[in-house]
Known about the structure:
Layout: E1 4-10, H1 12-22, H2 25-30, H3 42-54, H4 61-74, E2 95-99, H5 101-108, H6 116-126, H7 136-155, E3 159-165
Helix pairs in contact: 5-7, 6-7
Amino acid sequence: MSVEFGIYVVDWESFTVSLESAGDPFEVVEELTQERLSVDSLEAQDEFLGCLDKLRERMAPDAWNAMSELFGHLFWSWQGADKQILDCGEPDTGIDVAWAPDTVKRFAALLPRMDLATSRSAFEAVKPPSGWFPGADGFISFAGECGDCVERAAKEGKGLVVFVFG
C-alpha cells in the first residue's frame, strides 16, 4: 500500500480549535482543502532529498542551504525526528508537520534564496537516479509547488500542515 501525504494551508486558530475539540486528526483533515502537488507519495520526499543531496557540490551554497533547510524540515521523517516541527498536535497521529504562522514566515524567508534555475543546471549535470523526478523539470516543479504553499501561507498569515495517510 502506498503511503501518501498532503499539504494544507490552514487558518491556524480554526485548525487548532478543531483539533482540540475533535480529538481525531483524521476528522479535522477531512474538512480541509489539500493543496495540489504533482507528487504525493511519501517515498518521493525521500527521493527529492536524495536528489538535493547530490546537487550540493553544483549549486551555490546559499541556495542549497536554503533548500536543505526548508525541505529538511518539511520532509523531516527522512532526516530524523529532531527536524520535526509540531507547533500543535501530537507525534504519530497523522500530523507530520504543523507550522504556526510565525514558523511559516521563518521558512518563507528562505524562499528568495532558493535558486531553482541553478538547481536545473546542477540536476542536468549530475542526473541523479530518480523514479519520481526523472528530469530537472519534475524536481523543480515539485520544489516550486511546495515553496508556493509556504509562500501563500506566509502572505495570508496562515499555518501549514502536512498530513500522512496510509
